Amino acid sequence: MHALEVKNLKTYYTTLSGDVKAVDGVSFNVEKGKATGLAGESGCGKTTIALSILRILPSGGRIVDGEVIFQGIDLTKLNEDEMRREIRWKGISIVFQGAMNALNPVYSVGDQIVEAITTHEPEVGKREALERAMKLLELVGIEPSRVNNYPHEFSGGMRQRAMIAMALACNPTVLIADEPSTALDVIVAAQVLKLLKELKEKLGLGMILITHDLSIIAELCEFTAIMYAGKIAEYGDVFTVFKEPLHPYTQGLINAFPNIRLPRSRIASIPGFPPDLLRPPSGCRFHPRCSYAMDICKVEEPEFLHLGKGHYVACHLVSKK
Amino acid sequence: MAKDKPIVKVENLVKWFPVRLGFISTLLGQRLFVRAVDNISFEIKKAEIFGLAGESGSGKTTTGRLILRLIEPTKGRIWFEGREISRLKPKELKPLRRKMQIIFQDPYESLNPRMTIRAILEEPLNVQGVSREEIENRIYQVLEDVDLIPPEEFLLRYPHELSGGQRQRIGVARALILNPEFIVADEPVSMLDISIRAGILDLLLELRKKYKVSLLYITHDLALARHICDRLAIMYLGKIMEMGDMDEVVGKPMHPYTKALMAAVPVPDPTSARIEVVVKGEIPSPVNPPPGCRFHTRCPSYIGDVCRRKEPPLIEVNKGRWVACHLYSSSKKQ
Fold first, then answer.
1. A-B interface: how many C-beta pairs under 8 angstroms?
2. CB atoms within 10 A of CB B329
């Protein structure tokens, strides 16, 4: 069984100028103890997917279609109360982008973790919760004796670890990490990535990693979905997607990424810029930037085709064969 | 690369920022300083792209601003085109400003939202008293240089009508418009999407070739720095730890700090070596930097008391290859 299954998810935002189709028919799975990376440029809908799964979309955002299957239940059908009591934190939790700045400066880190535990598990006493908070800190590599420290006494990397500890407070089975290392320095970022990898393996967490950085996906994930303009362009295990990418956008992204361990080579940009999702291009949304674009690409949207072994591609170049 | 005399040279450059303290501490005569840049020396050659890399708080941006004389150095000397500029008065600096420009990190924050592209590009020319006709020519020329073609289509637009990549091209155009000799590029692509970063970097490389402009490229991203820089200096807590030819520093790092940085950079290839975390903890406060070698508190190759007591000087271990580490200075003595 999958830890989480997203099927044909469509999430739109209502704006004065019309619907923004931020996520438009996205399907992928998350496996237990494995990470699925959602990669793509800003505005491609990766964070909206996370917010849709947890049903915490900002006002104006709504799930239009699709299913999110978690432990046999379709989360899109649950009411707000059930989501809050049963799913968030206990089932699925999230570490937001820039999370280290989300700690409340006037409460100690321990108090904040205790609050998370006692709110969601009212049967747990204060004392027991504090013990759990200390264990959680230890789990993420922070000296448990610092449980009573305030956020300003922690460094940026420690605050990020504390937020990860908090996300794990109610033993979720799925963890969503949204750009977990973006605001951190190289070495600290590496420490946090390593921690996430260890936690994933140790706790058997199903993980969704949202990032714009392909090298973090290569480092941490078993599967990846490359997103473009609200759709998945290519999806599969990381080896297939990185080594035999079939979608021109995936190829372009990989070529745009320098590899520091290899001899210096040209990095290539993709011409143009991501489209406005109020008025997405017709046919394949990538066609205005694609160097292989054919006539059919402008009119007909490519099917999300299964090529075997869980490798999916949405491109006319592939479906034509 | 032309091996003639350097366009920019800094010697023993120091910048300490005072920390504001409470009333009592002030009465007691206590003073604290953030040692943002603490005695660094280097040269940038004509038409060279010199990279300055390090973690946040290492002093890279301060160094860039010092060279441009946007802030006053505490100590040390700065030469520009062979002339010392570290003590020049604002009035004397004005003609120099035309020759040294800056490209900022954030193209969303660094362009005035109420000014059209034309107004943004015109302003530096007006300040420098360029003639009307010349202004027109320059604006068209520079927009073509940064690939915003046709220029007429952009002149009357406002920044919000442009994409991030296009805005940063305006940032580059603004830096170029006075035909500078030297540009400080402060993380010019870190706010941009991956697919357009390479385009901006290629643009900088092209402009260097065309106009022989020299660049100080400030970054925390070693993989991208590799793509554009000729030489690289690694900074840590206000000091240069290692400096040399780009490919050598990245390919065969000598300083334990550079090695640690390199090991921590993830690679976009699932089959290649994983990142390693050889260094614990985070960068210490620059208010009270560790004595001796500033990296000794985190160094995996700590060799004993000498690291704690004596500050290793930046020495030239090979031709053009500089390292500040006792591992190399002690072997030299023997």
1. 131
2. 17
CA atoms lying within 13 Å on the CB side of residue B117: 27
Beta strands in A40-102, from DSSP E residues, in sequence order: 61-70, 73-74, 92-95
Strands (E), chain B: 8-18, 33-44, 49-53, 75-80, 83-84, 100-103, 182-186, 214-219, 231-236, 239-245, 315-318, 321-323
What is the nearest CA distance from A157 to chain B, expressed in angstroms?
A: 8
For the beta carbon of residue A127, count every other beta carbon within 10 angstroms. Answer: 9
- B87: distance to nearest CA of chain A, Å? 34
Q: Hey, are the CB atoms on A219 and B247 less than 8 Å from each other?
A: no
Cis peptide before A105 (omega within 30 of 0): no
Q: Phi first, then psi: what are they for B18, rounded to 5°?
A: -70, 145
Sorted by sequence, the CB contacts under 8 Å of residue B67 that are 6+ apart come out as: B8, B10, B78, B80, B100, B184, B216
pLDDT in tens, B267-305: 989 988 688 888 888 888 888 899 999 999 999 999 889
CB contact under 8 A, A219 and B279: no
Give the chain B residue nearest A181 (alpha carbons): B266
Look at residue A265 and give its three-state secondary structure.
Answer: coil
**Whole-angstrom Cα distance, residue B277 to residue A187?**
7
ipTM above 0.90 for this complex: no
d(CA A10, CA B235): 47
CB spacing of A186 vs B197 below 8 angstroms = no
Two tokens at A285? 């949304």
Q: What percent of chain A has pLDDT over 70?
A: 99
A83 pLDDT more than 60: yes
Which element (helix H / strand E) includes A129? helix A126-139
In angstroms, the CA A15 to CA B321 distance is 57
CA separation for the pair B84, B140 (Å, rounded):
34
Residue A100: the pLDDT is 75
Which residue in the set A261, A270, A274 is minimally distant from B267, CB to CB? A261
Closest CA to B194 of A290, A225, A257: A257
In contact, B264 and B275? CB cutoff 8 Å = yes
pLDDT, position B1: 43
Strands (E), chain A: 4-15, 18-30, 35-39, 61-70, 73-74, 92-95, 174-178, 206-211, 223-228, 231-237, 305-306, 312-313
* pLDDT greater than 70 at residue A59: yes
Could you say which of B196, B198, B226 has the minimum Cβ distance to residue A260?
Answer: B226
pTM for this predicted structure: 0.89
Mean pLDDT of A8-35: 94
- Distance from the Cα of B94 to chain A's closest Cα (Å) equals 36
Q: State both tokens at A172.
A: 């979720």
pLDDT tens figures, B123-153: 999 988 889 999 999 999 999 999 998 999 9
Listed residue (B138, B136, B62, B125) closest to B98, CA to CA = B125
Residue pair A227/B238 in contact (Cβ under 8 Å)? The answer is no
